[in-house]
Amino acid sequence: MTVPAALDGAAVERALAMPVAIAAIRDALRGGLDPAAGPARSVVPVPHGQLLLMPAYWGRYAGVKLATVAPGNPERGLPRIQGAYLLLDGETLRPLAVVDAVSLTAIRTAAVSAVAVDLLAEPDARRLVVFGSGPQAHSHLAAVRAVRPVDEVVVVGRDEGRARAFADAAAGEGLTARVGTAADVAGADLVVCATTARTPLFDGALLHPRATVVAVGSHEPDAAEVDATTVCACTVVVEDRMTALREAGDVIGPVQAGLLDPGTLVGLADVARGVVVVPPSRPRLFKSVGMAWEDLVLAAEVHAAV
């Protein structure tokens, strides 16, 4: 048996500069990839977290990500999300590569968000509020800057030291950056929620009609980073409607409460292909739960680059 190539985090980062990753996701959606076609994520609870199994197939490739979520890891100085991606030849199912899933997940989540931001946000959006100061917050700043002229960043985080370090790093890149509070949402063109919070982070009544919100922190039906006010005020775009109604607590809560018609959810692929045009007259929310096709698209991109 041929041993597949092992591609570490450095290889992933070399292959997936953020503009490359964004273009790969956008091209896949416009090229006919159907987010609804893939199998559902398997979630297995274990004593100290979760095991996630995420298979996918499309085009020339198939693959599966085995990811682990260990909430206690950041206190140990370890990533909360770890794992590996096994990329397979689509026809023979021969293993081609084992890809580091930490870097892959950080980049693919932000790249998908950037595709959504590019489709939904105002062209001149420049004021960004980021909730969170971990890897996804950092990745999302880079991703959003790749598609919008962001020059002002406010960081809101539970850990003031980490939030300040994040703001200082952004300032070092030439941005106007500071630590703020949830009230800063009122002046935001863009809001990114990249946290482990299980309850809403801000009052949706504060959102400006021009604002675009991205929420990526949860794939669990009983967790929500944004409140029902936000969801009901916004045009809600999701990776896949059925997946969102199964996994996105931010959406499931308002639907179960009778506040949101699930038929109004808009699929990201429909927006990317121009099937649906999102009106600019109200705020926009992109709720992502992370799907296996995203990992497959970018794992294939990494393999092709090495």
UniProtKB/TrEMBL annotation:
It comes from the Bacteria. This is Ornithine cyclodeaminase family protein. It comes from Pseudonocardia alaniniphila.
